[in-house]
Amino acid sequence: MPLDDIAQEFVNRVLPNLKEKYHPVEVWLWGSHVYGHPHEYSDLDVIVVSEDFRGERFIDRQVRLVNELDLFYDDVIGVVDPICYTPEEFEKKKNRVCVIQEALKKGVRVL
């Protein structure tokens, strides 16, 4: 599935920094930018799976990632909405009805 310009910009510019700082084992993009029908206010939905999130509260992971990668609002990408899991959390949630199932079915794994 081809990525739109916003998703491709994330892969080209943000993913290298994400890999360096968080050592993810998986990164998924999903949502309207990947499905080909973003609107003016669409954010970029990202799932990041990393051991680096172990022992950290769920919401704190997202806040830290957004702050450290300067993603609160990017002039090109816009708003990035990351969901951050440890590998074990991701494995457990894959079999439940949740956003992970949609991301796995319709999204794109970029790492």
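Next protein, fold it too.
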Amino acid sequence: EHNNFIIKKVTELTLQLIKNMDFSDKIFFLKETLIYPLFRYLLENPNIADNLDDENYLNSVYESARDFEDFFDETYVLFKKEER
């Protein structure tokens, strides 16, 4: 049940991120985007990754959060939308 809550929370953050994302080729400080709380939430709940298969997108996001954890104060992001 706790994992369902975590997945729901991560889904809400992701939907907010997509809805509010600025694709104008601007560079943003990571901590000023919704990626930061998403990364923090995943890092504070690492057990969520234990229940995912390696192909799950959330697992990739968790790995990115771990990779950048020590660099949040100096990380910037740029959003691009790929045409499908």
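About the second fold: The chain has one domain: 2-78.
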